[in-house]
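Onboarding guide, step 5: your first structure request.
Type a short instruction followed by the sequence, for example:

Predict the 3D structure of this protein.
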Amino acid sequence: MPKVMPVSANWIIATGVIVAALYFGRAILAPFALAVFLFLIIEGFARALQARLPVLGLNFLRCLAIMTVVVGFIGFIVLLAGGVARLGGQAGGYEDKINDLIATVYGLIRIEDAPTLNELIFNEAGQRFFALIANATSSLTGDLVLILIYVGFLFVAQASWSQKLDRIFTDEDQRKHVRELGEDARRSIETYLWTQTLISALTTALTYVTLLLLGVENAVFLSALIFILNYIPTVGSIVASLLPPLFALVQPDIPVWVPGGPELGSYVFTGLVFAGVSFWQFSIGNFVQPRVMGDSLNLSSLVVLLSLAVWGAVWGIPGMFLSAPLTVLLMILLAQGPSTKWISVLLSSNGKLGSELVDLGREFNNINK
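The system replies with structure tokens like these:
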């Protein structure tokens, strides 16, 4: 049995300092981290195009990848804005249905004077909640321009990375293994991001078709939200499964084919929507995603939840979206040191770090000696 080194006071102090720096510097570091991962998505897309179109130059394909991502992002924002506008036009009908549901619930538990939706939203707790959501959303939206500027400068700066690496690591073997470490980290994160994007797109497309067939209103808006939520590990899929049924429950007009009449029809409709959305989330998440993603993530389910909570507390909404790839990067870095390798083993899903990663860490440490 390998001996696990005890955690020293230096490690505790260093961890505390790093976490504090990440927290207090989140206004700068979180947008930059988002820019790095967006850069990796675009760069991966360009390399995939180059593999299929080797005649075209990499710089041209990078420009094509940037244009594709920007156009896709603008189209996505337009869809969201259209969905919000349509939802706003139907607000009166939704409000009446929600007030009826609140009155029904209060009647079942035999409590009089049921509050209305306006009273619940505009009380002190409701105002604090919506103010928190609005601040987080506006902060993320305001950082969008800064993120795009970062991405542009990352593409400009990457041409000199190789020269800088040569000057930092003068030993050829050491430089070679540092390159391999960076390539391994890039490949793992890039694979995860691209796989997650494709899986989210597949889930969203199938869910959208299901919502249309069932007759759910605002299917485009709900599908766009599901696409975003699927980037948040575990919790995002749960929320994505609950969101359309909640909208179906308060939908003013349910389809005529739904059985149950005016009293039970909404509940039957909600159950059908929940079954349809959950089927795709469960099937793709448990059968398709593991086969496509393979061991690129290699994190235990408990670590995924803990990393979601930790990174969410440190960086807010951006931290929740980046929790999985950031933890994978941390696991790769910790695997390189003999005193921290045991932490990577604990973070991994099966206790195995992969032969390439272990060999890389061993060779790197031999060079340093």
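Each response can be followed by summary notes, for example: Residues 172-214 form the longest helix (43 residues).
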